[in-house]
């Protein structure tokens, strides 16, 4: 087998990235994503692309925040691993898969090749997630009318709510952030992400019960792929009433009122209550996302 060549692309040779099969349909999923050529890398053997990765970040980010496109040719897992190992950035890896990938042998083999390459490069599984997409033909989820929603300009109100919500969270990313830096740091990072999103701060809402108690918060947002349910959270003392659905319904309606022609969302596979709420609100699963993180030393 001939030697492997790893190349970081430029505007002049960015076309090399497209010279690789796309069995998992990544191109369609990234139709709205804008990648920088210099954050794309390929592995070549005999001039043929056998692995590729696209690192991604926002327009103002100086470094990528994740890898969200990673492909490996059959039998070239080590080439994919070397592509990841040799990169100057060690950031989270997202592998987006068709919703039926577990039941289709060819898709499952392609997915597992990517998983093997990631593990060989020093990554470990963080979480498996469902990706949802609501479209108008599903009908708008009806607002139950049990809560009162309002804008809240004070970030401290959201920060306090996030601390309370994260104290009983099921979200794997939040649990990791709490383990690494505590609830205060995890809540602040969540808030910083919402500010990073290009959607207006004025969209954020708090929800109160008829008695005037805080029930939770929701963040209608836009990410680089379009309108999305940024965050849904019920404070611990208000759980058990099904308020997460009320928040999700409101969030979806707000986004549509702001012109959204579709709305995406996501939740961890293990978060059964939130998954049920997405289904109830008319959000079908369209893809799955497998998140890998750089393996922490024991």
TrEMBL record:
Domain N-acetyltransferase residues, every copy: 163-298
Source organism superkingdom: Bacteria
InterPro entries tied to this protein: GNAT_dom
Pfam assignment, any one: Acetyltransf_1
Protein name: GNAT family N-acetyltransferase
